[in-house]
Design a protein that fits this description.
Number of strands: 7
Number of helices: 12
Number of domains: 2
CATH architecture of the largest domain: Orthogonal Bundle
CATH class of the largest domain: Mainly Alpha
Distance between the termini: 92 Å
Structural class: mainly alpha
Largest sheet: 3 strands, antiparallel
Order of helices and strands: HEEHHEHHHHHEEEHHHHE
Mean pLDDT: 79
CATH topology of the largest domain: Lysozyme
Length: 364
C-alpha cells in the first residue's frame, strides 16, 4: 500500500529518508526550512527588541543628565614616579588607543609621575599627558553641564524675565519677582549655592557662566602651561594650568621678578587643578569675552580669542593655543564622553621599556 501523499512521487519519497518533512497546512515542507524560518524570525525580533531597548536607555540617560548624581572619581592606584606603570595602566584600560565609540573610561590619577619629564620621545610624552588628562577634563565638563541642565530646568519654573531676575535682591523690593515662590526649598538652596560659587546673583549672567569649556581647549592650555605634564609645577604640585595664588601655600617660581610675591598654587590632585581652572574661565571678569563668544559658538579656535588675558603674552598666547589644537588634532576629543562605570583595580605587570634621558623641552 502506498502511504505517500498524492502530492509526492517516488523520488520525493527517497528524499524524505534524508530530509524529514512535516505538514504545514495542506503542504509538506522540510523541517530544516521551518527551523530556518523560525530562526530568522527570532533574530529579527531580538534585533528589534535590542534596538528599541538601547534607544530607550540612551534617551533616558540624556533626559536624566541634569537629575542624576555624578559619582566622584575613584583614583587608580600606582607608584608615584613610575611612568612605565602609568603607560601600562593606560594600555590595560583602553586609553592608549581609543576605539571608534568615543567613550572614555573613568580613569583618574592623583598626580603625574615625577619622572615624566625624562620621557625622551615627545610623541609618547604627549600621549601620556593627553590621554591621562582627558578623563579628568570630561568629568569636570560633565559636572558643569549637569549644573547647567538643572539651573535651566529651575529657571523654566520661574515666571519672570531672565534679564530682570536677580537672586540677591529681596522680594520686598518694588517690582522684584518673588522667585522663591515658584521653587521647592532644595531648588532655592541650589540657586543660592550656584550664585555664591560663580559670584553673581544676576540670572542672566549666571546662565552665561554655568557652562562647560571645550575639551580641546582644556587639553591645549594644560599642555602649554605644564609643558605636556613635565613642568616642576605639574609634577610637584599638580598645577597643570599654572594658576597663581597670593593667599595659600604654593610653589615659588624660580624666575619670579623682584618685588612680586605670587606663587603657583598646589592642588591635592589633577582633578582639583582642572576644576579650579574651569571655574576660573567661567567666573572671572578677564574671561568675559570668552563667555560671550561661547554663547554663539563651540568652535575652540574662535573661543581661544577670548583667552588673551590668561597670559602676559596676549595674542601670541592665543595663537599658541590654536597651534596646539590644530597640530595635535585636539578637536577630535570634543565629541568624546565619559562612561558611568568605574574601572576594576589595575592588575597588569609593570613592563614595556620607555626611553629616559635628561629633561627635554616639549614641542607643540
Amino acid at each position: 500500500m502506498n502511504n505517500l501523499s498524492p502530492h509526492l512521487d517516488q523520488s520525493d519519497d527517497r528524499k524524505t529518508e534524508y530530509f524529514p518533512m512535516m505538514r504545514f497546512g495542506k503542504r509538506l515542507v522540510h523541517y530544516w526550512a521551518v527551523y530556518s524560518a523560525l530562526g530568522m524570525l527570532t533574530a529579527v525580533l531580538f534585533t528589534l527588541v535590542s534596538y528599541f531597548g538601547v534607544s530607550y536607555q540612551v534617551t533616558q540617560q540624556l533626559s536624566g543628565l541634569s537629575e542624576r548624581n555624578i559619582k566622584e572619581p575613584v583614583f587608580a592606584l600606582g607608584e608615584k614616579g613610575a611612568t612605565a606603570n602609568l603607560i601600562n595602566q593606560l594600555k590595560q584600560y583602553g586609553l592608549w588607543e581609543f576605539s571608534a565609540s568615543e567613550i572614555v573610561p573613568r580613569f583618574f590619577i592623583k598626580a603625574y609621575p615625577v619622572d615624566l619629564n625624562l620621557v625622551e620621545d615627545i610623541s609618547v610624552r604627549k600621549r601620556i599627558f593627553l590621554h591621562s588628562l582627558l578623563p579628568h577634563a570630561l568629568f569636570v565638563r560633565q559636572e558643569a553641564l549637569q549644573k547647567r541642565g538643572k539651573f535651566k530646568s529651575i529657571l523654566s519654573k520661574i515666571d519672570c524675565a531672565v534679564e530682570t531676575l536677580d537672586f540677591g535682591k529681596g522680594i520686598e523690593h518694588e517690582n522684584q519677582c518673588p522667585w522663591t515662590d515658584f521653587l521647592a526649598e532644595e531648588e532655592v538652596d541650589f540657586i543660592k549655592a550656584l550664585s555664591k560659587e560663580f559670584r553673581t546673583t544676576s540670572a542672566e549672567i549666571l546662565f552665561g557662566r554655568v557652562d562647560a569649556v571645550p575639551t580641546s581647549i582644556i587639553l591645549a592650555q594644560g599642555a602649554l602651561e605644564s609643558y605636556w605634564g613635565s613642568s616642576r609645577f605639574s609634577r610637584e604640585g599638580n598645577s597643570i594650568f599654572g594658576m597663581w595664588t597670593w593667599k595659600t601655600a604654593g610653589i615659588v617660581p624660580s624666575q619670579r621678578e623682584d618685588g612680586k610675591n605670587h606663587k603657583v598654587k598646589i592642588y591635592d590632585s589633577i582633578l582639583e587643578s582642572v576644576r579650579a581652572y574651569h571655574l576660573t574661565l567661567n567666573r572671572l571678569e578677564p574671561y568675559e569675552d570668552f563667555r560671550q563668544l561661547r554663547q554663539n559658538t563651540d568652535n575652540p579656535l574662535i573661543l581661544a580669542e577670548g583667552l588673551s588675558l590668561y597670559s602676559e603674552r596676549g595674542q601670541d598666547y592665543v595663537e599658541d593655543i590654536k597651534k596646539v589644537i590644530l597640530s595635535n588634532d585636539l578637536q577630535r576629543y570634543d565629541n568624546y564622553s565619559l562612561t558611568d562605570f568605574d574601572l576594576p583595580e589595575f592588575t597588569g605587570p609593570v613592563s614595556g621599556a620607555i626611553h629616559l634621558a635628561e629633561s627635554s623641552k616639549a614641542s607643540m
